[in-house]
Design brief:
Organism: Mucilaginibacter pankratovii
Shape: elongated
Order of helices and strands: HHEEEEEEEHHH
Radius of gyration: 30 Å
Largest sheet: 4 strands, antiparallel
Strand order of the largest sheet: 1-2-3-4
InterPro entries: SHOCT, YokE-like_PH
Number of helices: 5
Distance between the termini: 43 Å
Structural class: alpha+beta
Protein name: PH domain-containing protein
Length: 230
C-alpha cells in the first residue's frame, strides 16, 4: 500500500490519513477516473482524525472522519458543477473551498499552505479542461442545429409547386456572340486558423510562473483575470 500512495506524500501529508483515504477512494473510482492529489488537514494541537480533500480527473471529494475515526463520511462534486475554487492563507495553514452551481460551498481549514496551493493549481487545470470541453460541446450542438435547419429548408424547397412553363411563339434564334475569355482568378491564399487567444495567454503565463519570474499569488491573480475576461 505504501508504494501505491508514495506519490501523494510529497508535501508532508500524514501517511496514515492518506492510506485510510486511499483505500476508500479506490472503491469509489469510476471507469477512467484517476486520483490526482490528496491533501490532509493539519491542526496545530490535536490532529488525530484530520479532514482530507481528494481531486480526481472527474470530481472533487471532501472526507470527514466520524465515530472516532471508525468511519469516514464524504461529499463529492463533479467538475462541471464547480463554479469556482478558493484558497486563503492564514497565520497557521490555509483554507481551501469550492463553490457549486447550486450555491453550495464546502471547504477544509488548517491545510498546509503548500498543499492548499497544489489543490488550487490542480483544480484550476481541471476547471479549464471542463470549460474547453463545454465549449466544444456547445459548438457541436450549434453545428447539429444548423445542419437540421438547412435540411428542413431544402425539404421545403423540394415540395414547392412548379409553375407551368409557357412556350413563347417560334422565332429564329439570334446569333450568340462569342464571350471574351474569362480572366484567370488568382489563387486565394488560405488563412491559417487563428489560435485560441485565451490558451496562448495561459501558456505564456504558466511559462513565466514555472521559470520563477512571477510568484504563485501573481500567477493565480493573473489567471483569474484572464479567465474572467472570456
Amino acid at each position: 500500500m505504501r508504494n501505491m500512495i508514495e506519490k501523494f506524500l510529497k508535501e508532508e501529508q500524514d501517511p496514515k490519513a492518506v492510506e485510510r483515504i486511499y483505500g476508500r477512494l479506490v472503491d469509489l473510482l469510476t471507469t477512467g477516473e484517476e486520483i490526482l492529489y490528496i491533501a490532509v488537514q493539519k491542526k496545530p494541537i490535536v490532529n488525530l482524525f484530520p479532514d482530507c480533500i481528494a481531486l480526481t480527473n472527474k470530481r472533487i471529494l471532501f472526507f470527514t472522519p466520524a465515530n472516532l475515526g471508525l468511519s469516514i463520511k464524504f461529499v463529492d462534486f463533479v467538475w462541471k458543477d464547480i463554479v469556482d475554487v478558493y484558497t486563503r492563507e492564514e497565520i497557521i495553514g490555509a483554507v481551501f473551498s469550492a463553490k457549486t452551481t447550486n450555491g453550495a460551498e464546502m471547504g477544509v481549514d488548517y491545510l498546509p499552505k503548500v498543499q492548499a496551493r497544489k489543490l488550487y493549481q490542480y483544480a484550476q487545470e481541471r476547471k479549464e479542461a471542463e470549460r474547453e470541453a463545454r465549449r466544444l460541446r456547445d459548438l457541436e450542438e450549434k453545428r447539429a442545429e444548423s445542419g437540421s435547419m438547412q435540411i428542413g429548408h431544402a425539404n421545403e424547397a423540394a415540395f414547392q409547386p412548379v409553375a407551368p412553363v409557357v412556350q413563347p411563339p417560334f422565332a429564329a434564334p439570334a446569333p450568340v456572340p462569342t464571350p471574351p475569355p474569362a480572366p484567370v482568378a488568382a489563387p486565394v491564399a488560405q488563412e491559417e486558423p487563428k489560435k485560441d487567444e485565451l490558451t496562448e495567454k495561459l501558456k505564456r503565463l504558466k511559462m513565466l510562473f514555472e521559470n520563477g519570474l512571477i510568484s504563485q499569488e501573481e500567477y493565480n491573480a493573473k489567471k483569474l483575470d484572464l479567465l474572467s475576461d472570456f
